[in-house]
Here is the input.
Amino acid sequence: MPPITTLRLIPLKADDQSFGVLCLRIVNPISWFASLERMDKDLARSGSQVSFFWTFCEQAASLLERVHLRSVVQHRS
Here is the structure.
């Protein structure tokens, strides 16, 4: 039986601006990441793996936003 592969494209946003897209290719995904419905259900639980994952994505977007802002400031100088 071949492995199950899931592809997720997740926009990395800060405020309403997108700073990139996180592309995840997951082989044999764990149950909470197999469907968006499961992720939403798990997100409601305190301390869930999904909460950690979304916090990680928010941090990545924040870092990208800072790099972008620094670049804009440097080009104006």
Notes: The beta strands are 5-14, 17-27. The chain has one domain: 5-76. The helical segments are 36-43, 49-76. The chain has two helices and two strands.
